[in-house]
Amino acid sequence: MTQLLSLSRSARLAGVTRAEIQRRIRRGELTTFEGEIAVSDLLRVFPQVSLDNDDALERVQRIKAMALPRSHDADTVLPSPEVLRSRLKGMGEALAAKVSALDAAHTLLDDVEARLAQLGQAPTQAGLQADIRELADWLAQSHQALTDRTTLDREAQLLAKDNFLRLMAASVKLIPSGRDFFVEGDESILEASVRAGLHLAYGCASGNCGACKARVVSGEVRKIRDHDYPLSTREKEMGYMLACSNTAVTDLVLEAAEALSVDDIPPQEIRATLQGKEMLDGDLISLHLQTPRTQTLRFMAGQRALLTLEDDSAAELPIASCPCDARNLRFLVRRRPDRPFAAAIFGDQVRPGHLVLIQGPVGRFVLDETATAPAVFVAFGEGIAPMRGLIEHGISLDTIESFHLYWQAPGDASPLSLEQGRWCRALQDALDNFTLTPLPHADTQEILARLLADHPEPGGRRFYLAGPRSRIEPLAEALRNHDVAADRLSMEFLED
Fold first, then answer.
1. Does domain 375-494 have CATH number 3.30.43.10?
2. Between the CA of residue 235 and those of 5, 217, 247, 405, what are the distances in Å?
3. Is the pTM of this model over 0.85?
4. DSSP, res 381
5. Which CATH number is associated with domain 72-258?
């Protein structure tokens, strides 16, 4: 019987990104069966898969740990004893079923051997009798070899490793979208989905509003925290639970509402706390805001939010962080003495601990989450802010084949000398499919020439451009003249 694995589990076992698995599928190297991959096919394409240790898996985890912001609320890695006990029980039942099926197969083989032996002795044509005896001998030898087998083949070893990993993390598949993600340790299903870059519906994230209610189609969940929102008896019978208050015990199929476009995300108003200000250069400050634990901001990477200080000065700024860490939001503020908001931020009156009103999100400059083609990001100055959110989100989704960021740093600064540049360098060190190219202060044609030299067939790429309109519009027009379709170009215009 062919053993099948989901794309996410295949990537996890092979120690590569899911984007790499999808690239191999597009090239015809891997074949899928109803969205899953045969174990034998995976081992054929990735013969270097380690079956003795988890170095490859740890490498993938290190990539995400280095590239993405970490949650400050939960550092748990191992599941709780209760979850482990439930998973072991489920695996024990599955193993018992396999052993029972194997015993039945051995019994069947014994019966077939006996019947063939009888046929071999029965009066019949000499040629047929010899064929039956030959078949009986072959079956007996094969049966004995199966019984005497002391070493597992590579497919069995890979499945054994997969079973071990299932103890550490459960897979959740969402319907109707078909997206999937892993629930690590003892985190909630909602926390895991946000970390994976998905947009499950939620509100308070603390069990009060019921917005994250979802139906368990198959699998087992366990409540990890009490909630005030009441589920009716009928809802419980149908398998509904709150994603913020439950973890996955086994692999799940979950029917849940997802935001698939910016129109699916409601407007929100949150009072966040200023955690810190970091001077990036003489004219640029990075703000770190943290939302209340019970009211995180739902947004799509690349969107903007309106920030209002206690003196009522306000500014609408791109969110320079990923939805996968929605409590910790970052924004870049340019020094502009004529703007009250910027003047306050650069002054001494706004300090850590101040409350900042966040309203949003707004904007349609977001990642195309259905696209797996190589992505090219071109940022001018503060355009790096939304790009950071897009790239981190793309890494968390793990479906884009490659990332190439071009950045023209503000002023005369070198990109690698700034905080955003250090973030880029960390990505280059951690990922083999991320490239940073600093852009000189050159005209559109020179920049276009550089893009075409690196990507001679730009029509097969997805382009994201952010910066002053005077820089973005001419570059977008030049790319359209080189066969880049309009629906493969996304633009975010910032102030000159």
1. no
2. 31, 13, 18, 47
3. no
4. G
5. 3.10.20.30
The yes-or-no verdict on residue 358 having pLDDT over 60 is yes
SS3 1: coil
DSSP 159-217: HHHHHHHHHHEEEEEEETT--EEEEETT--HHHHHHHTT--B--SSSSSSS-TTEEEEE
Phi, psi (5° rounding) for residue 414? Answer: -85, 135
Tokens 């295949």 map to which residue? 10
Q: Where in the chain is the domain with CATH 3.10.20.30?
A: 72-258
Q: What is the DSSP string of 398-467?
A: T--S-EEEEEE-STT--GGGSHHHHHHHHHHHH-SSEEEEEPPS--HHHHHHHHHHH-S-GGGSEEEEEE
The three-class DSSP label of residue 307 is strand
What is the distance between the alpha carbons of residues 174 and 259, in angstroms, rounded to a whole number? 12
Contacts with 482 (C-beta within 8 Å, 6 or more apart), sequence order: 448, 452, 458, 459
**Six token digits for residue 74:** 């939960």
266-296+303-362 CATH pick, 3.30.2350.10, 3.90.1310.10, 1.10.760.10, 2.40.30.10: 2.40.30.10
Residues of the chain with CATH 3.40.50.80: 375-494
In degrees and rounded to multiples of 5, residue 84 shows phi and psi of: -60, -40
CA atoms of 273 and 310, how far apart (whole Å): 12
Distance (Å, rounded) from C-alpha 453 to C-alpha 62?
32
For residue 29 the two structure tokens come to 């190297």
Q: Please write the tens of the pLDDT for every residue from 309-341.
A: 999 999 999 999 999 888 899 999 988 888 999
Residue 396 · residue 63 · CB < 8 Å: no
Beta bridge partners of 174: 254
Q: How many CB atoms lie within 10 A of CB 269?
A: 12
Beta strands at 213-218 and 221-223: parallel, antiparallel or unpaired: unpaired
d(CA 329, CA 271): 12
Strand partners, 138: none
What pLDDT digit, counting tens, does each position of 58-76 carry?
544 554 554 454 444 444 4
